[in-house]
Amino acid sequence: MNLQTRLTPDGEEAKAALDVLRAWAAQADPAEVARLDPAIARLLPGHEVSNYPDLSRHYDPDFTVDEAYRATLPDLQNGPASLIVGAKARIEHVGISNFRLPLRYRTRSGGEVTLETSVTGTVSLDANKKGINMSRVMRSFYTHAGKEFSFEVMAAALDDYRDKLDSFDARLMMRFSFPAEIESLRSGLRGWQYYEIGLEMVDQNGTRQKMIHLDYVYSSTCPCSLELSEHARRTRGQLATPHSQRSVARISVVLDETGGCLWFEDLIDIARRAVPTETQVMVKREDEQAFAELNAANPIFVEDAVRAFAGGLLADPRVGDFRVAASHQESLHSHDAVAVLTEGATFASASLDPRFFASLSHGG
């Protein structure tokens, strides 16, 4: 005996179900209706869209949104796990990158400076959650941007959107060009040097870390080329010049606040003491000659550079884990000479972004 079950309801059954749905929607909270399906709101008297899909093409500047209307708006990004596309896997970083706003920073001299800042904010996402409301990252940041300075803004914003987005881990990065007035080597001229700096705050597994990233631009004279040039002069009376190139070191440090405050200017000083051949801003002839002498007094391979920077960082109690990555953008070769040195577990990595070294450049 075969039993067949009718799966398609007839008209009477559909009408009865519609009556039940209308009765429920009439007494339910609009937010509940929206979570089930925003289209249900149109089943209620006075909410029908009779001309759908023949829609108005006129923009109404006077239309206002109340809470009841807002509750009907679809929100797929915060939808149920059934809407997840692909693997139900945990996402380490999801958020927004490079939204910009002016922020205030303290200087070592006791003043402050307001700088255009590029912000990246991300959180982790549980495997069973569809997505995050990314505008909350920006809204949380703007809430504190006018009231606090740099790391304080980051801490307050991170607390806000980490809680609102119900995430395990959260990260913020702020990038900006920090100006410092530099005096020329001999002429007494002064000019503004701009340092690319990033501030990073990471909240992971209940532990919060603060980091500073600095791009330091310098000239590197090849010690081998210098000796070969001097050999040509000494043995054959042949004029020769050693090759030098613009070079970039990216110095990333975890702050150890038990040692005191590490100012941006302090990190720049550490770099300059380690490798004093920083590129110059204002130059007269006597400065150019001085720079040639300074380079001759400090010839340096890329291996020497990362170790020199590391020596300065290891000596400072305000610096915890660190990474130094350097690129000497060769004038002799058609390729660059590169090196990476890390201290501690924070920056240790078996892999690098394929274009990591290409990012070590000076835009001019």
Description of the molecule:
- With 364 residues, the chain is of the alpha+beta class.
- The protein has a domain at 171-359: Urate Oxidase (Roll), CATH 3.10.270.
- Helices cover 29% and strands 28% of the residues.
- It contains 9 helices and 8 strands.
- The chain has helices spanning 11-27, 30-36, 67-72, 135-145, 150-164, 223-236, 264-274, 285-297, 302-314, and strands spanning 91-106, 112-125, 170-183, 190-204, 207-221, 244-255, 319-328, 337-343.
- The chain has an 8-stranded antiparallel beta sheet.
- A hairpin with an 8-residue loop joins strand 7 (319-328) and strand 8.
- Helix 7 packs across helix 9 (302-314).
- The longest helix has 17 residues, at 11-27.
- 23% of the residues are buried.
- The model has no long low-confidence stretch (mean pLDDT 88).
